[in-house]
Q: What sequence folds into this?
């Protein structure tokens, strides 16, 4: 198993606290996929893609690898294993539902700005 840095351990504790504060105790969590579908009734999602499977986890709407925060409640939705995978398989539809913000590649300009922000404000989430 990959070792977890001290900084990451602290962040994971912060994330667990945020998830419980936002969504309540883990035992009561349920997949929010249907809520997002209801919000955007014009987005077509096949009936077979609406069934839930597996455990429910916090899903980052803007991925960590794209600078998304894992501790910002506005960047997290609860999704089951199936719908976590579904977002990866159907990124454009997931974007229309507000469940993903990673289908679009990050431009060179944004990468430069993010790098500058990181340099000028170390430790600050982007
Ligand atoms: Zn689900």
A:
């Amino acid at each position: 198993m990959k070792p977890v840095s001290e900084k990451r351990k602290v962040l994971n504790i912060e994330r667990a606290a945020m998830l419980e504060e936002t969504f309540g105790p883990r035992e009561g969590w349920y997949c929010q996929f249907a809520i997002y579908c209801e919000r955007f009734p014009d987005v077509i999602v096949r009936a077979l893609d609406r069934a839930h499977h597996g455990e429910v986890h916090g899903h980052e709407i803007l991925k960590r690898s794209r600078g998304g925060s894992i501790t910002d409640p506005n960047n997290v939705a609860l999704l089951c294993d199936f719908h976590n995978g579904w977002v990866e398989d159907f990124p454009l539809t997931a974007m229309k539902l507000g469940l993903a913000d990673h289908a679009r590649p990050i431009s060179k300009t944004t990468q430069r700005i993010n790098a500058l922000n990181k340099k000028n404000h170390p430790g600050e989430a982007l």
